[in-house]
Amino acid sequence: MPTKVLFFFPHNPLPPRSGAHQRCLEMLAGLQALGCETTLISTKLFSDSEWNTESKQALERDWVRQVRVYETAAVDHYFRAAMMRANSFLNRRAPLNSTLFKPPAFQRWATRIHDQVQPDLTITNYAYWDGLLPHRTAARTAIEMHDLLTLNQRMREALLKRLPALPVNAAQVADEVLHEDFYDRLALEADAEEFQIYDRYDFTIAISAKEAALIRQRTKRTETVLIPMTQEVKVAQPSYDGAALFVTGPNPFNLQGYLYFAKHVLPRLRRQLPDFRLQVTGATCQSVLPTEGVSLSGFVPDLKAVYESARFAICPVFGGTGQQVKVVEAMSYGLPVVITRAAAASSPVQHGVNGLVANNAEEFAEHYAQLWQDRVLCRRLGQAAKETIATEYSRLQLLRGLTELIG
Known about the structure:
The protein is of the alpha/beta class. The chain is built from 15 helices and 13 strands. Helix 1 (19-33) packs across helix 15 (395-406) and helix 9 (252-272) crosses helix 13.
């Protein structure tokens, strides 16, 4: 009998618009490869991409046995509004796994699906939805953390209150916000509440070794399973003669990274290399004003052609938690990545081996200029990047991690 898996993800992952979407699809593909019978449940209440018939059909054709999506009811909005008013009146912060994220009607619906499926394994994405799927059952329980939510939220709040109104020009942003040690100076930490939630599960899935170590240190019961973002290497061969590439997702850390690049790195490059060009894709394009030398492409449904034409990829991000999924994806195409020291700590990039790591804006500019002028170096580092993904971040690594959950 195949292992029956009930998998909750709060968003429609098709087409993938963020690293979280890609991660969801990769996990579903891994479960399918292991012969699992997976039911994906989601909701229109929180999805950052609209659910539609085409997405459901594609998921059921290629990834899962069935997709069940909770249709939002008026009572859910009334309940959430009442909860928010009560919390505001009492001047209190809602718990991380508050019923704000699990209105009673939604939770009853999820419980009915659980009882119908009778899964051998449940996988919940994000601590916000802890308790949506029953704990006291015979099923094994796992939670996919994605990143440390409370630490991530504190970083977001610290950043957003210091950013000007959007769309923003890099010159408007204070230098302290675009300094590499901005978050180090704040000395922020994750809440104990978050680790207590992870301890309610048989397994906690971590996406980076750094966060896996922290979870093991601060929990007592849960078994931490490290499953980094994995990618199948692509057969495509980049030409290494187009623009440099920065693929962004819908979070403010990508915006901060772009502004850092535009204010502190791009002027150095333009003085040295007037023909330098950067292509930016994704949500950040909507939040910034045009800059000479930068092409803002917005959302690109299929990045294959973009990766194939790029000279190299960049990741000037130094905030956030988890793992920069787009770095793994770029490397799977054979692109070298120039990356900050902070982001490199949770990535496959090794300086001078399969990419380049920079500590400051001056080093970034030097690395960019080096790759811009040396296609042979781009190809050498890019091929090493692809080999790294093939050996250390392949689907095989994903299957090994998922096998631990299935038992």
